[in-house]
Amino acid sequence: MRKYWVIAAAVALLGAIAAVAYAQLPERTNAYTVGGATSPNKAGSTKKPVPIGLNFSYTVAEQSGLRPAPVEKYSIRFKGVRENSALFPGCRYTKINNDQGTHKCPKGALLGKGRLVAVAGAESNRSDKSITCPLNVEVWNAGRGKASIYVVGGSGAPAGKTTSCPTTTNAALDANFVRVGNEVRLEFGVPLVPFRQQLGTTGTKDDPNAIEVSVVEVSSTVARKTRRVRGKTRGFFEAIGGCVRGTRTISVVFRNEDGKTATAQRKATCRR
Fold first, then answer.
1. Rounded to the nearest 10 degrees, how much is the dihedral formed by the CA atoms of 121, 117, 35, 257?
2. DSSP letter at 161?
3. Residue 251: which of 236, 262, 266, 240 has the closest Cα?
């Protein structure tokens, strides 16, 4: 009996030491950059909307060289742009996850593709960036103000979607298109497991035994998609204005899991 008591006490002591070590981890301050453009770069208007394609990219770093704090919510915003998700085929994130892929999704629901790079390391060591994980990203329409962000890669990913990431990811995130004035926003949250943390034992953000995953680079291109509706050509994304001195604002609001929020933006060319 004494033997088991000694083992239990040792485990408790190690847990306490790990907790103290975690509490003493250095604070992190993320730094962000954003890129993006729309094509064609016309301003458009509500009366004469212009169907467009768009691209966006962003990077996440940490000011002192540590592994960045993982981002738990993104809001990607385009001034003078609206979406028409209700007019195009959709594929919900639940279907992608249930089917373990997009092979049963309507082809017309695919909006765009891109790439993602994450770095990972021990949760208890914020200097650890020993694991690099490149993944594929696909943006799918999900209908009526909804989108699905499909993240896939690793050696066990479906054919044609494998990457050199040491672990396999094959899951879709629920996303929303939100309209605020003449601005469209693509917003989505990132669940803790498996996107921000892997191999943990407690399922909590502060698990010192876990591997923390931080996205450091994302880029995506959304094609110019159109269809005829009641005799008119409609775009999935349409430019409806928003040009100020020849530029349109593209911005991303980042909220990381430490509760800090920051905004980075880019001025993209647009012509009246």
1. -40
2. -
3. 266
Could you tell me which residues come within 8 angstroms of residue 124 by beta carbon, excluding any fewer than 6 positions away? 18, 21, 22, 25, 208, 209
Q: Backbone dihedral region of 30: left (phi > 0), alpha (psi from -120 to 50 degrees) or beta?
A: beta
The amino acid occupying position 98 is N
**Burial category of 265 from C-beta neighbours within 10 Å (exposed 0-12, middle 13-18, buried 19 and up):** middle
Instruction: Return d(Cα 108, Cα 65) in angstroms, integer.
Output: 42
DSSP string of 110-151? EEEEEEEEEEEEETT-TT---EEEEEEEEEEE-SSSEEEEEE
* Residue 34 neighbours by CB distance under 10 Å: 18
Q: Which residues on neighbouring strands pair with residue 254, listed in sequence order? A: 74, 262
**Is the CB of residue 207 less than 8 Å from the CB of residue 197?**
yes
Cα separation, 259 vs 86, in Å, equals: 33
Question: Which residue reads 């605020």 in tokens?
Answer: 180
What pLDDT was estimated at residue 23? 55
**Which amino acid, one-letter code, is at 191?**
P
pTM score: 0.89
Quick one: pLDDT band at residue 24, thresholds 50, 70, 90? confident
Give Cα 138 to chain centroid, integer Å.
10
Euclidean distance between CA atoms 127 and 226, whole angstroms? 47
* DSSP single-letter state for residue 98: H
Q: What is d(CA 88, CA 78) in angstroms, rounded to the nearest whole number?
A: 20
Residue 249 has pLDDT above 50, yes or no: yes
Cα–Cα distance measured from residue 6 to residue 233, given in angstroms and rounded to the nearest whole number: 75
List CB contacts of 108: < 8 A, sequence separation 6 or more.
88, 89, 225
